[in-house]
Write a structure and sequence with these properties.
2 domains, four-stranded antiparallel beta sheet, three-stranded antiparallel beta sheet
């Protein structure tokens, strides 16, 4: 049976859907509230579940779509659809929050924030599905940063939220 796990951290709601290798970790004062996943018996019910969807379709220019695909492929090309979806979600959450710029291009091009996305890039089907998810309004809420899970730089500036494969994701302090 598939399920959805929800973790509440410091009054910030994080929803994560159907991720197989999710772990929560962080500083010693980080204490996740745990409860049973909500069971979902079919794929159709999973798609209709309102817990992690904004249901507000997003409109992006072709340039923005290309930038989102490029940054997701560069940062999480080996992480599958969910990993690339979370990277795109980080970009889009930054666009909607202070102190970051209010455009996809400006967020991605900020110095030292993401790896270089210059040059040719081929996109996987998984990347295309991740882009379709964010375009349909399915954006992981509140996550604004990530680093390799063995990194320890961002914990000084953000709250650790969860780890997915080899990335640790953070929320704004």
């Amino acid at each position: 049976m598939r399920g959805i796990s929800i973790t509440l951290t410091a009054a910030v709601f994080i929803t994560v859907t159907m991720l197989d290798s999710l772990t929560v970790e962080g500083e010693s004062d980080f204490k996740p509230i745990e409860f049973e996943p909500i069971p979902i018996s079919t794929e159709k019910e999973a798609e209709e579940c309102p817990i992690n969807r904004t249901d507000d379709a997003q409109t992006f220019t072709e340039e923005e779509k290309d930038l989102l695909r490029r940054v997701a492929t560069a940062e999480a090309g080996n992480q599958g659809e969910d990993g690339m979806w979370m990277v795109m979600s980080v970009v889009l959450n930054r666009v909607s929050m202070d102190p970051w710029p209010d455009s996809v291009k400006e967020v991605i091009e900020q110095p030292y924030q993401f790896v270089s996305i210059d040059g040719q890039c081929e996109y996987s089907e998984e990347c295309g599905r991740a882009l379709e998810r964010v375009c349909s309004g399915d954006i992981a809420p509140q996550i604004v940063a990530f680093e390799r899970k063995d990194g320890d730089v961002l914990v000084k500036y953000f709250y650790p939220a969860f780890t997915y494969k080899d990335h640790r994701f953070y929320t704004k302090k």
